[in-house]
Design goal:
heterodimer; A: alpha/beta; 8-stranded mixed β-sheet; 19 strands; globular; disordered N terminus; B: 6-stranded mixed β-sheet
């Protein structure tokens, strides 16, 4: 625990927080349900045993430890907690975008992230985002919003945990960027750059060149003045974490691909509405895509964006990209709408997954696209994303088939703790 | 058929394409489960369509000679769905006339592009009729229209030209009056009183034998006069319960017909609405906007209290392709399946005042229906065939 808090406080370290020791001493056996480990075929009448915050057994005939609490899951479905690979949840609207500065690599989403709920309404004690937990989401990537070219560094968090440090899974998890309409529109409104797509790419390229120069200067003179932004971009260039570039229009995806090649950083395409024409290149270069909601073409924060800047909705995209060998996740790109919708759409991840299954993605692949694949893309698959021995005990119990609109999330365990119950 | 309501205006002929010859094609859809929106589902049912109308519905209908037969075995058949609240068909910059906080003289029709690509999404989602209109950037933003989503003959697509006057309790000026809920209420009340005075002056001139020049006409007061005369009704965008009650008071004071829209906290005052016969078009519960679980259960509470409710997409906020999913999400919280279907069919038609034409599968109504390959409410189900005015207007292609 101490180590974790310290690590979080250090800007320079990508950290992977361990499960707090001593949590969940009593084993729990979730028994009799259809177990969908995601990493392998479904197990009818299966059992999942969790202990010490970890999964210790998964299978059809696994021994139940003496003294274990038995959870009867007959007629139910047992899945890994869902992973929402893109969300702005927990960051107040006024904290999501720097209004006057388009490039903010030193900013850390974690430092604006509020897991406690609305300001002034929170209760003390363990952190529980009940709204999101009600949709079965236990892990999410939280980044700045999309009105700047570089919003800052994103973070992977759990939606429940003992305390702030305890919910962090990976920080920084990525350098969060946006190309296309959102930064352009925001800048135009203030009569400053980037007012065009040309300026967007030129400004990013200039800053990345600066970051290259900065690395050299630092090597030559380690005691020279520091620049936090260029340091963070240096870590991107050293491939300590990827760039997440939101790009929907093919023009923007092409620019993202070009920049990644030019500067040698790892790339994840966010949004990706126009990704189909790049499917072969994405597959060859092993560049993953995190799609927005299948039911909605705009991943942007604009309520009604300019249609001409977005390709039309293509519900077959998850299936077609997956088939082409592109690592493809489905995320919610959730943001809160004030007090009306503090959880945004994060809780509807499975409903959107259901839509994708109607458009050609098999149920097994759909479930992977909201669990294991996003976990892999986020670099946290050693901890979450599937029901496998040794992973965190993040388990959800559903009262019906995962993709039916009638199904409810009944129980959610995070790190072996029962953190939500319907 | 009450045809008096249909297209009373001459100008429509100007933009209309020449009327297509009335179709004599006869379609027999048979073999599926028919959800009529007016009774229990008919299993292994059949429905006969001719001349753009439904001519028979039941379990065993003999195929007339020459009829095209659509086999819907194992499928769900529902009425062509109706989205009671959307903004499609106009450019985003034409939806809100921000400089004018009260502009009842604005007509959405004057901004409507009948060929907008968004209509394609509606059709693919099985949505054949929509209310589309202005707002909600102003306290009164103008008149909505009720139209069909398909067809090239605009005269036939128009169902109701005075499709409801859009109010919105939200918009408050930051640097101009009204900037508070109190101001919005007072401003609306003042305008409604001026409308009454305008009407009184007109009436007096007529009662006095039309002597002298008539009172100067004002298109805003005339349009609001239609509301007070109940030739149309108020469609009010409203979220907090306190604003709902302001609308209830205005309705009582001025006697207009009222439907609440979005209606986020309407459930908190459900009995007040039920006893006054105020209907509610409820949250766009689509997957894009995840409102709190309390509010998600709101439609169920309203339904339970006896309030007539319909669902909406607010398209393009949510694509009309997923209107059915909005109803499905409401169903999750306790509304029975057939009642949830009514929220996107019959109830939506009744609230929009076009239920004599559309909204249910009944003999004499327009032959608008949607066939799905699974339960209409499941996300993974797909719309297979859409029939509008008795013709197949959409068929899902393999691999799509």
């Amino acid at each position: 625990m101490r180590l974790i808090s310290k690590s979080v406080a250090l800007a320079g370290l990508a950290i992977v927080a361990a499960t707090p020791a001593g949590a969940q001493d009593k084993p729990i056996a979730i028994r009799g349900g259809t177990v969908v480990p995601v990493s392998g075929p479904a197990i009818p009448n299966g059992t999942v045993v969790i202990r010490g915050g970890k999964i210790v057994a998964v299978g059809a005939n696994v021994p139940v430890p003496a003294g274990a609490e038995i959870v009867d899951a007959r007629g139910k479905y047992v899945l890994p907690g869902l992973v929402d690979a893109m969300s702005n949840i927990g960051i107040a609207a006024t904290d999501q975008d720097e209004p006057a500065e388009p490039i903010n690599p030193a900013n850390r989403a974690f430092e604006a992230y509020n897991p406690f709920g609305d300001f002034g309404s929170g209760r003390g004690g363990p952190l529980r985002n009940r709204e999101i937990l009600s949709g079965g989401v236990t892990t999410m990537y939280v980044g700045p919003a999309d009105a700047t070219l570089i919003g800052g560094q994103g973070v992977v968090v759990k939606t429940a945990g003992p305390d702030l440090a305890g919910v962090v899974v990976r920080e920084p998890a990525a350098m969060d960027m946006t190309l296309g309409t959102p930064p352009k529109a925001a800048a135009r409104a203030r009569n400053r750059d980037p007012a065009t797509r040309m300026a967007e790419v030129a400004m990013l390229r200039q800053r990345l060149v600066r970051a290259q120069e900065y690395q050299k200067t630092r090597e030559q003179n380690p005691n020279g003045p520091r620049d936090l932004g260029l340091e963070a971009l240096g870590r991107l260039l050293r491939r300590e974490f990827p760039a997440r570039i939101q790009a929907n229009h093919p023009t923007d995806i092409r620019s993202a691909l070009r920049l990644a090649q030019e500067f040698g950083f790892d790339l994840v395409v966010d949004g990706g509405q126009g990704a189909l024409e790049f499917k072969d290149e994405l597959a060859t270069r092993r560049i993953p895509v995190i799609l927005g909601q299948v039911s909605h073409p705009y991943v942007s924060n604009e309520e009604i964006p300019n249609k001409e800047d977005y390709p039309p909705m293509d519900e077959r995209l998850p299936a077609n990209l997956t088939r082409a060998g592109v690592k493809t996740a489905i995320a919610t790109f959730s943001r809160s709408f004030g007090s009306l919708a503090p959880a945004g759409s994060a809780k509807w991840l499975l409903i959107d997954a259901g839509i994708a299954s109607g458009y050609g993605l098999s149920e097994a692949d759909v479930l992977k696209a909201v669990t294991l694949i996003p976990a892999e893309i986020l670099g946290v698959a050693n901890r979450v994303g599937s029901l496998e021995v040794g992973k965190d005990a993040d388990v959800i119990v559903l009262d019906g088939p995962p993709l039916s609109v009638k199904t409810w999330v009944q129980r959610v365990y995070v790190g072996g703790e029962l953190v939500f119950q319907k | 058929m009450k045809s008096s309501r249909l297209i009373p205006v001459a100008w429509l002929a100007v933009i209309a394409t020449p009327a297509a010859a009335q179709t004599d094609e006869t379609l027999l859809v048979r073999g599926g489960t028919i959800h009529t929106a007016v009774g229990a589902p008919i299993r292994n049912g059949a429905i006969l369509l001719r001349g753009g109308k439904i001519v028979a519905i039941g379990t065993s209908i003999a195929a007339p000679a020459g009829a095209r037969i659509i086999d819907a075995t194992g499928k769900d058949i529902v009425p062509g769905m109706i989205d009671n609240h959307s903004h499609i068909g106009a450019r985003p910059t034409d939806i809100n006339d921000f400089p004018k906080l009260i502009g009842p003289e604005h007509r959405f029709l004057d901004a409507l592009d009948w060929n907008d690509p968004d209509f394609k999404d509606a059709i693919e989602g099985g949505v054949t009729t929509i209310v589309t209109g202005p707002g909600s950037g102003e306290n009164v933003s103008g008149m909505a229209v009720v139209i069909k989503t398909f067809g090239t003959d605009y005269t036939k697509r128009m169902l109701l030209e005075k499709g409801g006057m859009k109010f919105a309790m939200g918009p408050k000026g930051r640097d101009r009056y009204p900037a508070t809920a109190m101001g919005v209420a007072a401003n609306l009340r003042q305008y409604l009183i001026k409308t009454q005075e305008y009407q009184a002056a007109q009436k007096k001139w007529e009662d006095d034998g039309r002597k002298g020049n008539p009172p100067a006409r004002d298109l805003g007061y005339e349009a609001m006069g239609d509301v007070l005369a109940k030739r149309t009704y108020v469609r009010a965008h409203v979220h907090p319960a306190t604003d709902v009650m302001t609308l209830v008071r205005l309705k009582e004071e001025f006697g207009f017909d009222l439907t609440l829209h979005h209606s986020t906290e309407a459930y908190k005052v459900a009995p007040e609405l039920a006893k006054r016969g105020i209907s509610a078009v409820v949250l766009p519960l689509g997957p894009r906007i995840g409102v709190t679980e309390d509010a998600m259960a709101g439609p169920y509470i309203l339904w339970k209290a006896g309030v007539k409710i319909a669902m909406h997409t607010d398209a393009p906020v949510i694509s009309q392709k997923w209107l059915r999913l909005c109803a499905a999400l409401a169903m999750r919280y306790g509304i029975p399946e057939e009642e949830a279907l009514k929220m996107v069919t019959l109830n939506a038609a009744e609230i929009a005042r076009v239920a004599d034409r559309v909204g249910s599968l009944e003999v004499g109504k327009d032959a608008d229906l949607t066939i799905l390959n699974g339960p209409w409410y499941e996300p993974a189900s797909r719309v297979e065939t859409v029939i509008g005015d008795g013709r197949v207007i959409y068929e899902r292609k393999d691999g799509n």
